[in-house]
Amino acid sequence: MIAQHITQASYLLAAALFIFSLRWLNSPKTARRGVGAGVAGMTFAVIGTLLHPDIVTYRWIVVALVVGTIVGVPLSWVPLTAVPQRTALSHAFGGLAAGLVGTAKYMLWLEDGGLTHFRTAAIVVEVLLGFLTFTGSLMAAGKLQEVLPTRPLTYRNQNIINFALLGIAVASGIYLIVNPETWQLFPVVVVLSLVFGVLLILPIGGADMPTVISLLNSYAGLAAVAMGFVLENMLLVTAGALDGSSGFILSVIMCRAMNRSFTNVLFGAFGQVSAVQAAGEARTVKSATPQDVADILENASSVAIVPGYGMAVAQAQHRIRELYDQLTKRGIQCRFAIHPVAGRMPGHMNVLLAEAEVPYTALAEMDDINPDLPQTDVVIVVGANDVVNPAARHDRNSPIYGMPIINADRAKTVIAIKRSMNPGFAGIENELYYADNCLMAFGDAKAVLGDIVKALSGEAVAMH
Amino acid sequence: MQPTFDLWSMLFVFMLATFVGFQVIQNVSRLLHTPLMSLTNAISAIAIVGSLIITGAEHDTTSLILGAVAVAASMTNIVSGFLITDRMLKMFRDKRERQ
Q1: ipTM value for the complex
Q2: Cβ(B30)–Cβ(A207) under 8 Å?
Q3: Other Cβ atoms closer than 10 A to A31
Q4: Residue B50 and residue A32: Cβ atoms within 8 Å?
Q5: 3-state SS assignment for residue A1
Q6: Is A440:A285 a contact under the CB 8 Å cutoff?
Q7: Which of A386, A395, A409, A436 is catalytic?
Q8: Closest approach of chain A CAs to the CA of B35, in angstroms?
Q9: Which of B43, B82, B91 has the most A C-beta neighbours within 10 Å, making it the best mutation to test the interface with A?
């Protein structure tokens, strides 16, 4: 009896620590304290559970904990460009754990007659969300790692087939809830959830990954909530709800940043429409050498850099920081304009730039920096494309029409560093490159930036 | 045990925790959305609690295997989630700290 009170007290403490943990993420100054609180909460919860009277043997627990640690430690060493894949993979693990516990509980209660309608309902929700998250996240991780094709895979009647499958799964689930003993339906629910997870992610393209990862994050949290209802555990309900609302808020932010709805992301198969309108009259662009760019920068007093995922692909983060150092050394104000969907997951660009030792005070959100851009002398676009395409503001036929963008075109001069004139990821032509105030610096982003930095520092040496 | 009572109190907890979650998450710095996701990943691996009870109770072989795999999966998330979050947060410095 006392042991149970200790367990519950440790859960209560853990829940409070988890809330503090997230709360301290409100500023980079206190954020690391948040990790400490999270670790402390988790430790209390695990120790409290191990004291639970139901636990009679520790042998397999120890084995599983050791295996988890052996897998988990190297997973935390991945390069930061691969963080989206790691995140998707960990959603998959979370979903798997929920699905497996739900399955085990169903079997145990089926045996000892403990299956009530309510318990079965909670288990069905847990298993459905858990296994759907498991395969869906594996697919997302595969697409992000590019072991699976990143473009949307579509086939005829895709949505009808998907909904039919989900319908059968839900119908089987409901039948199971009404008649908990019809165990034959349980594997049907499991298999359909697994298949539905795969089908859900197939039509989603790489550009939508930030939204999808956030959504899967939310599902993984809700699966933990359902597990809490199955096991009648308040801590699981609380922690799962925190995770679920976090994923939900992030997906809303991502959707807003692309001016799209959830349904459109999940069922819209972005990227198909765009190929149609690629044909247009040949227009000319102005190109500039790194030396030209350096000269322009020397005479600027304010510079904004717009990074995109292409920057990470070219591994140009450190060159960008060198450029930042050169500019700030000359007293030129230099900031980074970060679009919410730049990169492959929410906040990805910030982490990549922080790794390159760009101080976070130089990172500005789209909404904060947009009003300043008309007074900015030079905007440098590195590896970003759709997020600076002015067509989003005025061209009703553009697939990205209505998407909030960084108004790079309003700056006095725009320099776009790009490999070639090939349209970007989504296959959409970018009219920014043809604007009068835009200069193209062609080449690999890392090499071009390196040359610009060299040209700038060469001048500096000559002056001494 | 009164199942109806438990159901309602759990729904209350769920509702309140969701509101707390919304409030807290909306205040998270936009700079830190990637670490936020890895941190919530680690926190939602609290599913380890349920997995531990199933594994430790040792009812039968099947539930033991399912439970142990779930413990290992959750532990992976806990370990990698907290470690990578800390690794990322260490990189966020303002100007003063850099010099």
Answers
A1: 0.94
A2: no
A3: 25
A4: no
A5: coil
A6: yes
A7: A386
A8: 8
A9: B43
Q: Both tokens of residue A219? A: 């599902």
pLDDT tens digits, A45-72: 999 999 988 888 899 999 999 999 999 9
Local structure of residue A148 (DSSP, 8 states): S
d(CA A343, CA A263): 22
Q: Does A88 touch chain B (CB under 8 A)?
A: no
Determine the Cα–Cα distance for residues B81 and A86; give it in Å rounded to an integer.
9
Rounded-to-integer distance, Cα A174 and Cα A151, Å: 35
- Concatenated DSSP letters of A157-197: THHHHHHHHHHHHHHHHHHHHHSTT-TTHHHHHHHHHHHHH
Shortest distance between the Cα of B8 and any Cα of chain A, in A, equals 11
Active site residue A386: yes
Query: A357–B48: do the CB atoms touch at under 8 Å?
Result: no
Instruction: For residue A339, give the nearest of A364, A320, A316 by alpha carbon.
Output: A364
How far apart (Å, rounded) are the C-alpha atoms in residues A273 and A400? 10
Phi, psi of A326 (to 5 degrees): -60, -45
pTM, full prediction:
0.92
Distance CA A43, CA A136 (A): 30
Please check whether residue A406 is in contact with residue A374, taking contact to mean a CB–CB distance below 8 angstroms.
Answer: no
Rounded Cα distance between A336 and A306, Å, is: 6
Q: Amino acid letter at A246?
A: S
- Residues B26, A249: C-beta atoms closer than 8 Å: yes
pLDDT in tens, A71-81: 999 999 999 99
CB atoms within 10 A of CB A155: 9
Flag if B36 and A239 touch (Cβ within 8 Å). no
User: What residues in B contact A83, CB-CB < 8 Å?
Assistant: 34, 38, 84, 88
Interface of B with A in 8-27 (CB under 8 A): 9-10, 13-14, 17-18, 20-22, 24-27
Neighbours of A441 (CB within 10 A): 22
E-state strands within A317-360: 333-338
> What residues form DSSP beta bridges with A333?
A302
Report residue A256 as tokens.
């807003």
